[in-house]
């Protein structure tokens, strides 16, 4: 299957610190890739380079056959419409002075300037209903909604222009656990219903497992392991991946102790080699 999105040799340095070090990732149409790692591993920097919020020092971002980092005006317009981002904190990413209608319609004003206000409103109501809200939200402002509802509004804004790719930067980390599950289920449903391709960044492997087909593990700006979800979770190759998995809580204390024992034995065996 050919790649819809291909990141090759991406490198980004801040001063003497190499935040992203020669990272390559591919996403096929309709696929969901989870990018995991601790804070400071370079996850968010990769996304910021991908969507143009940071300029990488080296590398390419090929989307639908063209390099988005060196695109002409027409290609760049297409990329910005078809690759949309959902940010980590819905309390910060939504302008508190704007109504929900204004927030969600904003991409349409940019990408479909000839659409009438009535047409934009119809599209906004349609996408709000897709994410579990109603038209009654239109005149309200973000402060009148819970964190989970705000993130639904942010997802609606990302979906309204009809994107092919959704780039999610830890979109549930600021939410309560019960609300996290609702948002992940929403994204999973949107992916199935709309055929979305998703790049999902998180530090919580339990969340990533619910949504993603493949996993890439990032440490110190480098991909240390990549593979199918079941392979990475069932038989992780890199010690850092095993450390991340060991931090995922298991409700059964006996099973949790057994997992920790096996990980310790495996790490000791590798150290002795």
UniProtKB/TrEMBL annotation:
Tell me which SMART domains the record gives: AAA
Please indicate if the UniProt record lists Transferase as a keyword: no
One GO BP annotation here? peptide transport
Fetch the Pfam families from UniProt: ABC_tran, oligo_HPY
| InterPro entries to which the protein is assigned, alphabetical | AAA+_ATPase, ABC_transp_ATP-bind, ABC_transporter-like_ATP-bd, ABC_transporter-like_CS, Oligopep_ABC_C, P-loop_NTPase, PhnK
What is an example of a GO molecular function annotated in this UniProt entry?
ATP binding
Specify the ABC transporter domain's residue ranges.
5-245
Indicate yes or no for the key word Transferase.
no
> What parts of the sequence cross the membrane?
none
Key words of the record: ATP-binding, Nucleotide-binding, Transport
Q: Where is this region: Disordered?
A: 251-273
The Swiss-Prot or TrEMBL record describes its family as follows: Belongs to the ABC transporter superfamily.
| PANTHER family on file | D,D-DIPEPTIDE TRANSPORT ATP-BINDING PROTEIN DDPF-RELATED, TRANSPORT ATP-BINDING PROTEIN
What name does UniProt use for this protein? Oligopeptide transport system ATP-binding protein
Species this chain originates from: Actinocorallia herbida
